[in-house]
Write a structure and sequence with these properties.
- By secondary structure, the protein is α+β, with helices and mostly antiparallel strands.
- It has a domain of 35 residues.
- 39% of the residues lie in helices and 48% in strands.
- The longest helix has 25 residues.
- It is a lipid-anchor.
- It holds the Pfam family TraT.
- One of its GO terms (cellular component) is cell outer membrane.
- InterPro entries: TraT_complement-R (IPR008874).
Length: 119
């Protein structure tokens, strides 16, 4: 195409090709720098305690480490009228040129819906 525009001379075709490549490179670089994909995330740990008719028996365990060789393990038996459930939720918002304020609202809204779906 460049050769046809330049009238068929090889030198002119090469010059036009170089100019076209340069314009494409600079234009692509400008557009690429203007667009940025942003990702924001929220992680929530949830503990739900459900009251039960019968006692729930459990053990609280602690594994303590100090340095590379000392380990202490302690256990304590417990009895309660609550069954405990734990989970972790992760929500991400990814979009081109996403603003932090908008992302925070989306993460909170989606996390709220996920928590509400437990009940």
């Amino acid at each position: 195409m460049a050769g046809g525009i330049a009238g068929g001379r090889d030198v002119d075709a090469l010059i036009l090709a170089a100019i076209g490549a340069g314009v494409g490179y600079v234009g692509g670089a400008l557009i690429g720098s203007a667009l940025k994909i942003e990702t924001f995330a929220g992680v929530v740990k949830i503990q739900i305690m459900e009251k039960t008719e019968n006692p729930v028996v459990g053990v609280i365990t602690s594994n303590l480490k100090q340095g590379t060789s000392t380990t202490i393990k302690t256990e304590q038996a417990i009895t309660t009228n609550y069954q405990t459930y734990r989970t972790k939720l992760a929500v991400t918002a990814t979009q081109t040129n996403l603003k932090k304020e908008i992302a925070a609202k989306e993460v909170v809204d989606k996390t709220s819906v996920l928590i509400a779906n437990f009940f």
